[in-house]
Amino acid sequence: MSDADHSSSSRPMIVARDLTKHYGAAQAVRGISFTVHRGEVVGFLGPNGAGKSTTMKMLTGFLRPTSGAAQIAGYDMASASLEGRACIGYLPENAPLYEEMMVVDFLRFVAQMRDLSGNKLAGRLRHVVERCGLKDVLGKDISQLSRGYRQRVGIAQALIHDPQLLILDEPTSGLDPNQIVEIRALIRDLGRDKTVLLSTHILSEVHAVCNRAIIINQGMLVADDTPEALMHSGDVTTVALTLKGRKNAPLAAADADARIRALPGVLQVDLQAPLGAATGAISLTVRGNNEADLRELLFEAAVDNAWCVLEMRQEKKSLEETFQRLTQGTSNTTGDRYAA
Description:
Blueprint lengths: L2 H8 L3 E10 L2 E11 L4 E5 L6 H9 L6 E6 L2 E2 L4 H5 L2 E4 L11 H11 L4 H14 L15 H13 L5 E5 L7 H14 L4 E5 L3 H7 L2 E6 L2 E6 L1 H5 L4 E10 L7 H9 L4 E6 L9 E9 L4 H11 L2 E9 L3 H9 L8 H4 L1
């Protein structure tokens, strides 16, 4: 590998620096900055009107930012837009497909627009048809295809020139559950050798497909981490606890409840119904702040009070709960038509 090749491969795939977009008095995007490295599959999340599509259009060169800058594979999208666009495969939310064309003719047309010809065109066509599962519909008009197959055609046109980066805007929008599973599997497969930026409203999709999530709200970045880390974020920890008294020291539920509530950092205790007189056990859900390890405090309390701990587990927040916490109170001042 040459020094130039090594330098190119070590550059981040996407660099967004203080991207801002105004539509008159409305601010769709307000100073967003982030970096996506090669080989990452990144979920790009936000409620309607958050600025996701506007940001993606600025990254791809479809929109010029009011201020700030975007780089794709080291190319500045203001001064070297054509070079940057050559590195991108883009699937907008509403894929621009010519419905009167047959699938094979449409893909060949897109390939020619990407300056592919001869054996290279034929090879890339075979590759995307196989990878996107389009063999059985090549001779059909696009107007005859189901929504799922149309999305496959949209992904195939984004792949036809073998781009380094795929930017997919709501690729599973409007699909039925079976089609969603199929497209997710395809995106996971593509993520093995492409960098992927995936905008979606389906949070389980991010957990299933992405190794990182960026969340924006009202045009501003509010979180950037792995899905697992985001589910552990926040100010409150929840621990599910099952206790049992010892043979000569039966457990009094009300006494255990009061002793746990008195622990430093405990915010709330929910005492569940006793698990039965035969075991003398109780189940509790304890919520506390993140300043100390709640599990350690509960274990020490169990030792001090001669309680037997049958079960203790720290409960994860769902990605949905994290998303709601980070984006609640959205006013959608920019309007869906600007920044959905």
